[in-house]
Amino acid sequence: AGVKYVGCFKDNRYRDLPVVYTANYKTTKAYCFRYCRAKGYRYFGLQNGNACTCGNTVGRYGKAKSKDCARSTCKGDKRSKCGGPWRNSVFTTGLKPKSFKTPGMSHIGCFVDGRRRDLPTLGGKGSMTVGRCYGLCKKKGFRFFGVQIGKQCWCGNHYGRYGRRDKRECRYQCRGDKTTYCGGSWRNDVYATGVVVASKGKQCWCGNHYGRYGRRDKRECRYQCRGDKTTYCGGSWRNDVYATGLEEHASGVTLLGCFRDNSKRDLPLVHGAGHRTTKAYCLKYCKSRGYRYFGLQAGSACTCGNKYGSFGRVNAKQCRTRCRGDKRRTCGGSWRNSVYSTGIGSKPVRLPGLKHLGCYLDKSSRDLRKLVLSGSVTVPKCYKACKARKYRFFGVQNGYQCWCGNHYGRYRIRSNLECRVQCRGDKSTYCGGAWRNNVYATGVVVASKAAGVKYVGCFKDNRYRDLPVVYTANYKTTKAYCFRYCRAKGYRYFGLQNGNACTCGNTVGRYGKAKSKDCARSTCKGDKRSKCGGPWRNSVFTTGLKPKSFKTPGMSHIGCFVDGRRRDLPTLGGKGSMTVGRCYGLCKKKGFRFFGVQIGKQCWCGNHYGRYGRRDKRECRYQCRGDKTTYCGGSWRNDVYATGVVVASKGKQCWCGNHYGRYGRRDKRECRYQCRGDKTTYCGGSWRNDVYATGLEEHASGVTLLGCFRDNSKRDLPLVHGAGHRTTKAYCLKYCKSRGYRYFGLQAGSACTCGNKYGSFGRVNAKQCRTRCRGDKRRTCGGSWRNSVYSTGIGSKPVRLPGLKHLGCYLDKSSRDLRKLVLSGSVTVPKCYKACKARKYRFFGVQNGYQCWCGNHYGRYRIRSNLECRVQCRGDKSTYCGGAWRNNVYATGVVVASKAAGVKYVGCFKDNRYRDLPVVYTANYKTTKAYCFRYCRAKGYRYFGLQNGNACTCGNTVGRYGKAKSKDCARSTCKGDKRSKCGGPWRNSVFTTGLKPKSFKRKQCWCGNHYGRYGRRDKRECRYQCRGDKTTYCGGSWRNDVYATGVVVASKAPGMSHIGCFVDGRRRDLPTVGGKGSITVGRCYGLCKKKGFRFFGVQIGKQCWCGNHYGRYGRRDKRECRYQCRGDKTTYCGGSWRNDVYATGLEEHASGVTLLGCFRDNSKRDLPLVHGAGHRTTKAYCLKYCKSRGYRYFGLQAGSACTCGNKYGSFGRVNAKQCRTRCRGDKRRTCGGSWRNSVYSTGIGSKPVRLPGLKHLGCYLDKSSRDLRKLVLSGSVTVPKCYKACKARKYRFFGVQNGYQCWCGNHYGRYRIRSNLECRVQCRGDKSTYCGGAGRSEVRRLLQGQSLQGFAGSLHCQLQDDKGLLLPLLSSKGYRYFGLQNGNACTCGNTVGRYGKAKSKDCARST
């Protein structure tokens, strides 16, 4: 009854329904209904399919969509939906809160409580409800009550001392009514009782402001009014505040907007009005101080000023903070001013030319120099005072000072916010600040236009200065100031640069004009309204000054020249107040051709100048003392002019030639002597030729320009002649042709180059060969390291010689590369070719221009660059014939025969440091096929080889290291013939020499029945040629090449075999002495075999030892067993403490032994018993050892160990090849390998054990609190005995431990399973089986398949499955079904299959 669906609601970690129970698989609507109803809650919810939620209120976080509560399936009923993630499907439980009458009660909220209680009186405890607490506190006359921690009721007239908290912290259920909440831990859920406390209600307070001490809850103002008890009249120290409806008067006030503020203050005066803050109060405050504007900020402050908006306007929404003086109104915001006008208007100031320039810093050495007023200052007063005194600028400072001046800004500009001190004479305006000038322009213009002052233009400047005088005027920089400065110094031009500099000079424009806008980039520091040039840009004006005029016929300016102590112009014309015109007159009067003005005051005269060189005209810019508008040289610098005087001379010489310019060019003014035959023209000067061309060209027939070619220090054309001023094409042609060269070149304008070849370093663009010829400036002669190459017309003589081929330039030394000198003198290439070819030489070389050398090999001393073989042949200068110790090598075409009868190519063979062909000769530059053929054939070898280009190899056999690829023998060029290949690195190109070995009947040199006493050596040590047949080998020095004759020595020793030479010791290796004296191998064999021993050894030539084992002290080389037998000196009988060991042929008896295979072993041991048998290790010995200990199997390992056990193969079988280590006791047999057992059966069979229901379960750990609880046997235990003893006692399991104990029980496995390798102690009663180990039980099962009911009684309702795991039957609990899960759990119930069937194999995965 009453259960209804409420809806789908949102939830979060703070919980809408506070009680959450994760019901998991029990989660259904019915279960959660019962759960929450039982706890007394009004609502229950289903969340996320697995949780029930309970509470008395719902919907705090809002409703959700219905589909959000249909996402999760109920874990307890898959057919239904149970909410969703953070979504509650909410229903009513049908419970209603207890009803009670509470007139006047109202809920206030959740409040913190403390040790000093917020509500001080305890109303009651126990089974508490809200209604009960209401009744208790109202009865006691309290205004408020609170329920806490579900069971406490507190009463009082005040609350909230410790602050308010979220209502989620007050959700403890009431003990008396669980459908409602009763606070929390130290949290009061506070209500008002509705009680009104009677009081006098007699005081009335009036004012224009309120709220100084803060606002409180209206419930604290519930005292009844004395005059009308139906209304409230405040409380104790509490005003119930009302507005009268009267408004404060604020005429002329206009809201200007909401403006941003910061620590620098938009309105500079700030007054913290606090609870008095209203619009009317702030208006009154700011207006009384003469400000034009006021602002309200942050609800509690008034701001005043004459300007506003410095930091920008913002949205009006940012100015909504309530006024502390009137909560109905807004008073700006945090750092936001609500700005209004006060109604005060600034006094009209109409003053011509007045302009505000900004706020500027001032210091003790004043920016504006003149103080004219102090006291009640205003801007108009200061303006009039400074303008009357003709000042261009004025500034008001600190509210009471007036300063005047023509310049400002020396100490830099500041923010206008720093100039906000009110003027004493007019508080509605600002008059600067402390050490801050509010600067204005008066409009006064200082005249800068004198007669002739004009704007010239904008000109470029650089560090060498267009106008040489530069004065950094800084804050004084104006057009008027620079005009006065430069005019006073007598300059014709002045300029303004970069806003802070004046420049002066007499000439302008050296570096060119600039754009007008480039001179409008910098503001004048002395007048911010004007522009003063730009960076490296001069705004140039004329000063109005003109240079003094004088007549100077014939005068011309030459340039600026250096002077020295020995004067360049030797005669002093005058000193003092010098001008160019005056110096011209002084020197012309004296008849001099040139004059120079120096250092502004000196005049020098002469007929020659320039001895010390010319300089830039910028070094001649001293002002003339007599006329400052012109320049008169510099310090040790003459500004040189020509006077126009012509010096008469004989003018009588005429010189002719094909070249000129050897001594250099001079200025044409030095060639001004009048011609004697025609005085109207010039005919040179003193030692000066005025040079003319006749028009004739030099003859250069057959010359062809081949191009412009690169050259370097190695020279493309080898002969270089520095022709200097004679360098012309015709001169170089003549020079090179006379020397027989085919080509000539012109280089760098001053050199001839000759050669027979060109272009070694490459061609370049013709533009790189444009240097003027020193011998003819009208023509070009190559360039720097560039040859203009021409042919001389000489052709090389035709050389057509069969087989001739140029091979290169090769170094030669005193032990010649080509051995035979055949010609010397007038040598040519054809002559040398014919001479060497006639002598059958394969190669020839021409050297140093006059020598001819012949040979069959070359290149001994390495190749060089062709540039080193450029000496002309004496017999033909148009070709090269080598160089000094350099051969130009050619092939003659002669082929030296290398094919004799039987010479054939065998192939390419591998070689190494042990040599396939043993004789190696490093032939170097002689290495050719023909040379190596002759070398090896002469030595009688059947094969010869060519290796690595520089070696011959010889031998009688080939191919020991195998064949190689043919290309491997084509990698190295023959040093003796660069046209052929001679093998490769460690590769032989092998040929036959044509020699055959001689046939012979074998005969003996050294004979014997034994050999090898001194050891074997490599066959390479037996390669001396036989004297009788050099094609075969006959041993070496102290080396026998041993052969067998085929003679067989008869022996009567069946089964005997030689084993080797072994060390003996005091404890004899072969322990039994067979005989001594005149011993032979045959006699010792008979003695030991007769005694039944498997081995015998002969020692020191006379002893015979017998035994079944040997090798205890190790093997030695057979050369240590070379003592002759006393009984037969043709055989050896051991040595000193050395046994020459033989087998007698007898075998050890090992019946019933079967090889089972080769098996892997490791440190855990496949066969647990290991015995290091050492030199006794044989199959028979190990069989005897393991069989005697009752083991079923034995193994042989590593040649020296026996292993025993009852089981094998734990680590797997391996290939039989891994068990091939020789037995130390019998080297003829194999005994396993490293960690490999050759396993055999001992012949002992395990006793048959047929016991019903017996099953081996494994090896389990045991401890002092036993795994199997009952010890039934101890001593001579076997598995069958233990089985019978435990079965008779009705136990399900038994275990044998440590070889002699039998334990029984119904459970096992408490201490976990171990490896079977840990349960390998032999049973005392049957050594062929294992009975556990130390602290290890080998557990077996007795019974299988008995009925559940029949076995339940004896096991006390416990059941064991067929794998030995226990599970509770629990029939005593009355369940219909039980289950086994995950190998370790029993499950019980009355129904099954809720989640469906699984595959059978899924229930067979856990043991």
From TrEMBL:
PROSITE patterns: WSC
Subcellular localization: Membrane
Membrane-topology descriptor: Single-pass membrane protein
InterPro entries: Kremen_rcpt, WSC_carb-bd
Keywords, sorted A to Z: Glycoprotein, Membrane, Signal, Transmembrane, Transmembrane helix
Segments forming domain WSC: 2-94, 104-194, 252-343, 353-443, 452-544, 554-644, 702-793, 803-893, 902-994, 1055-1145, 1152-1243, 1253-1343
Major localization class: membrane
GO cellular component: a single term: plasma membrane
Entry-linked PANTHER family: KREMEN PROTEIN, PROTEIN SLG1
UniProt-recorded name of the protein: WSC domain-containing protein
Gene source species: Macrostomum lignano
